[in-house]
Design goal:
mainly beta; Immunoglobulin-like; five-stranded mixed sheet; 7 strands; about 0% helix
Length: about 80
């Protein structure tokens, strides 16, 4: 899978969710390059360096199970 590319002049809205049909989701946390972010947070891509970045979301259910998913994207000067 190829990372999506966004222009540094753009902004990016963080959007994530998790569900568990059996026990329910207890906690969801997310980081962008290791820095905590929140759902629906808008990121001004001019504040990030050019190159690849990683958004990681971790969800924990009430049974103590954890799921982690990451997505990579690039910030570029031009496409």
């Amino acid at each position: 899978m190829r990372a999506a590319a966004y222009l540094s002049s753009q902004s990016l809205r963080i959007d994530f969710d998790a569900f568990d049909n059996i026990t329910g989701v207890k906690e969801i946390t997310a980081t962008l390059d290791g820095v905590p972010v929140t759902d629906n947070q808008e990121i001004d891509l001019r504040t990030l360096t050019l190159g690849e970045h990683t958004l990681t979301v971790q969800a924990k259910d009430y049974a103590g199970n954890t799921a982690i998913r990451s997505v990579k994207f690039k910030v570029v000067d031009r496409k």
